[in-house]
Amino acid sequence: MRKVEKISEILNIDVNAASLVKPPKEVSISVHFSYLEAKRKSWSPRSPEVQYLLSIFIGEALGREKGEAFVPFIIEAETEPDLVSFTLRGGVYIEGSLENIEDWVLPQGEKAPKVWMRIYQESLAMLAILARFVDAPPPEVSSLSE
Known about the structure:
Layout: E1 28-40, E2 51-58, E3 68-80, E4 84-95, H1 98-105, H2 114-133
Antiparallel strand pairs: 1-4, 2-3, 3-4
């Protein structure tokens, strides 16, 4: 049987996911996680057939008139088969002109806002880290286009 150690404190995890959507130089974007939860539901052997089902909830951008916006988000992820579930909460901080901020937080026609892709990328990187803590296969990072 495997010994499980309790992690009492994590001071900093720097994810540094490579962004597929790069902001212009006049915009600063950073993703911060305020809550991370990983629940192992089953201890069956690792399965290479694990799929991650993600739900991303993005709140309204706050404070954009002042050149600084905060976009809260919640990510809920479960695996299929039902081995592990994750909850991530946090926010994206965007600094720049009102025009540049709106370019990131408003939908582009039928496309999701650019900030959605940034949250998705950073969350996949964090899910991969959390999956290691609970001995689950990490999510596959598929090739995404803008």
